[in-house]
Amino acid sequence: MSNRLRARRVVETLKEYHPPLGGRDGLRLDFNENVDGCSTRVLHTLHSITAELLNKYPEREPGERAVARHLGIAADQVLLTNGVDEAIHLLAETYLEPGDETLIAVPTFSMYEIYALATGAMVRSVQSSEALEFPAAAMLAAITPQTRLICVANPNNPTGAIATREQLLAILNAAPQAAVLIDEAYIHFGGETLLDQLGHIDNLFICRTFSKAFGLAGFRLGALLGPTQHMKMLRRVASPYNVNGVALTCLSAALDDRDYIAAYVEQVLEGRSLLERFYRERNIPYWPSQANFVLAYFGDYRKVFVDEMRKRGILVRDRNNDPGCAGCVRITLGNREQTVRLLRELPEALAAIGFTPQPRPTLVAKEAQ
Ligand SMILES: Cc1ncc(COP(=O)(O)O)c(C=O)c1O
Predict the structure, then answer these.
(1) What is the pLDDT of residue 18?
(2) How confident is the model at residue 52 (pLDDT cuts 50, 70, 90)?
């Protein structure tokens, strides 16, 4: 046997996930970020950063108390993380043994699968129906005694669909042996939070991010919320300095500027209904969204459409490879001015590529795998 260093077997078979980050010049409507900016209070606080703040290890707890106050929960129910990505990673590391099952409804955010597989656990993917709605009944049916982690994005990415409170409570109830993560990354734009259930249900975890409505994706700041007794376990796994001092220093300013969030969300919702109306008027199949983006079907024109928009300085996201999303493109909404620009370029881009709307082929639903 060779004594060469090798990665663990599950890591060697893991698919590479490369979000197309390179060369993103132009209007970035491809990553669901806030493309408007962020609170000016945050920018102001950044100017107060001193060498002392940078040379000392960051203290997470004051930030956790601020988030707890903001959400009306206890500080020991909050763990600040390096984005929601780290929250998912920590849940997988804390609750999954090799061979355990993780349950997700696809299409959804890619990192659930990656972090789960990296632990040596298996992933059961339940395909959403043709309407790309949350497949609640199929999810319930797919729960087994080996299910130890269930991740639901609510609203979901890339569909914009929501799961109802009743659907989520039924899943929580049916899988008491599993950590159930409700990922509320897009909750400012739609859907109903389960925050009021936090601490009352032993296996409920919720995560929130500062990357979307708050406009702070570059800070890498997220919050994992859960029952106190479980958060103790997660804190054992987390690095003590997982969140950087600059982000922590600006956190209160971000939370306090509720006016900024409200004004930005209002513009996104306005833009969303304008974009959905555009699709309706053009007979372009789309999925009604509760998030800051809309998924639509461009069929065979998908690639030329994405390329044509890029030529016009607007980046949109090809979702062709997501399960059940062949021919689909996702467009994020920005502020009012950016939506005006989007709606000016869209018809011109479609005309330039000679687009005619195509009926969406029937989705061949796959069994949970
Ligand atoms: C559902 C969902 N959760 C989490 C994230 C990532 O959040 P963060 O930037 O906090 O890691 C994304 C990013 O696209 C997402 O779509």
Answers:
(1) 78
(2) very high
Is the C-beta atom of 109 inside 6 A of ligand 1?
yes
Q: Which two tokens stand for residue 25?
A: 């010049």
Closest Cα to atom 5, ligand 1: which residue?
84
Which single residue is written with the structure tokens 């969406």? 360
* pLDDT at residue 358, as a whole number: 84
Tracing tokens 């909050």 back to the chain, one arrives at: 78
- Rounded Cα distance between 319 and 157, Å, is 11
Q: Which two tokens stand for residue 18?
A: 């490369």
Ligand 1 pocket test target in 28, 30, 35, 85 with most atoms within 8 Å of CB:
85
pLDDT band for position 19 (cuts 50, 70, 90): confident
CA distance 309 to 314: 5
Q: Is 358 exposed, middle or buried (CB count within 10 Å of its CB: 0-12, 13-18, 19+)?
A: middle
Cα three-residue angle 80-83-89, rounded to 5 degrees: 90
* C-alpha distances out from residue 275 to 26, 80, 159, 291, 295, Å: 19, 34, 15, 13, 10
* Structure tokens given for 102: 């993780």
Left (φ > 0), alpha (ψ -120 to 50) or beta: where does 26 sit?
Answer: left
User: Tokens for 95?
Assistant: 């609750």
Task: Please write the tens of the pLDDT for every residue from 120-143.
Answer: 999 999 999 889 999 999 999 999
Establish whether residue 157 lines the binding site of ligand 1, counting it when its CB lies within 6 angstroms of any ligand atom. yes
Q: What is the largest CA-CA distance in the chain?
A: 64
Cα dihedral sign, 329-330-334-336: positive
**85 Cβ inside 6 Å of ligand 1:** yes
Single-letter residue type at 133: E
Displacement of CA 77 from its chain's centroid (Å) = 21
pTM for the model stands at 0.96
DSSP 212-224: STT--GGG--EEE
